[in-house]
Recover the amino acids of this structure.
């Protein structure tokens, strides 16, 4: 089978998932419960995506933990996203040098 | 109008940098699965999603059926439907139907995170700006990874694996500090997710993530139904 058919199926399914709720839903939701629910969705999703995956993100739990700790501290002090993100990677890299892992 | 686009572009820079490193890995992976540089580029351009693409490449390499491909993409990416619904409540009046059709293309975890935690309404140009630079990072990284393979030493590419997660923490920690309800949702989702990973490891990652996020969010909405300030 042509790879382009696979790619088309992937792309169409993924786009439909995004566009149907986004384009067709135009009304303001009045239910307080649903509005609260939608308000919390990003935090639930991002937290579940990050934990525990972040501890495996560099392929080494020790360097990932260093990066995670640095990110948590900097995020706690409200530093900008890019600073937190790059400092996490830099500290994971440097701790990798010290620990002798790749 | 134009400054909204630039504002979006600026907000998207950390996303684009994160994508550059993640999609670099995807490019290497696609090439390993026998997919050409151009095909890998097209997959990234038309899908703009990490987990779905990685699974998709596996299915292509294994010669899976189209039904399997559609089902896997549906399960892994169904979280975007939730995000799209949530974002639909934050859209500015300038978001006409055609503009929604365009911007829907760019609803990813990271773009959603930045848009949904932005103060006030989201304008089309702001969202276009984020999507444009993020997509640029995503396809550029794919091209570089697929074409050049292992130029960067593995110590650097490995460390870059944490970039997007670091950004996620930077998004959720400050509001969790201010609102007890958000802290609750964040902690419950994290605990459930850790539990899923070690207690029911056979659950697929995407599915487990949806389950944990939904449970934590539902609990949050049930226990703290009053937090609405950010939506206006």
């Amino acid at each position: 089978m042509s790879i382009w058919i696979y790619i088309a199926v992937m792309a169409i399914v993924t786009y439909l998932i995004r566009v149907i709720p986004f384009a067709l839903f135009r009304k303001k939701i009045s239910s307080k419960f649903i509005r609260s629910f939608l308000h919390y969705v990003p935090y639930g999703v991002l937290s579940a995506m990050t934990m525990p995956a972040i501890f495996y993100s560099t392929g080494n739990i020790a360097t990932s933990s260093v990066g995670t700790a640095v990110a948590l501290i900097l995020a706690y002090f409200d530093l900008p996203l890019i600073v937190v993100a790059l400092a996490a990677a830099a500290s994971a890299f440097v701790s990798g040098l010290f620990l002798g892992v790749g | 109008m134009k400054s909204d686009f630039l504002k979006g572009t600026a907000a998207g820079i950390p996303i684009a940098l994160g994508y550059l490193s993640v999609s670099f890995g995807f490019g290497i992976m696609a090439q390993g699965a026998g997919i050409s540089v151009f095909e890998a580029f097209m997959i990234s351009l038309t899908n703009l999603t990490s987990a779905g693409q990685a699974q998709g490449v596996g299915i292509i390499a294994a010669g899976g059926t189209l039904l399997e491909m559609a089902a896997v993409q549906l399960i892994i990416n169904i979280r975007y439907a939730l995000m799209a619904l949530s974002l639909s409540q934050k859209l500015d009046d300038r978001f006409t139907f055609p503009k929604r059709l365009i911007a829907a293309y760019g609803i990813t975890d990271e773009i959603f995170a930045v848009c949904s935690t932005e103060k006030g309404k989201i304008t089309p140009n702001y969202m276009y700006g984020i999507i444009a630079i993020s997509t640029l990072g995503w396809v550029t990284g794919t091209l570089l990874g697929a074409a050049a393979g292992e130029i960067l030493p593995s110590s650097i590419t490995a460390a870059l694996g944490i970039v997007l997660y670091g950004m996620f923490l930077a998004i959720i920690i400050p509001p969790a500090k201010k609102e007890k309800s958000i802290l609750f949702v964040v902690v419950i989702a994290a605990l459930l997710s850790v539990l899923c990973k070690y207690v029911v490891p056979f659950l697929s990652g995407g599915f487990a993530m949806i389950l944990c996020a939904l449970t934590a969010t539902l609990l949050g909405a049930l226990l703290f139904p009053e937090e609405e300030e950010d939506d206006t």
Observations:
- The radius of gyration of chain B is 18 Å.
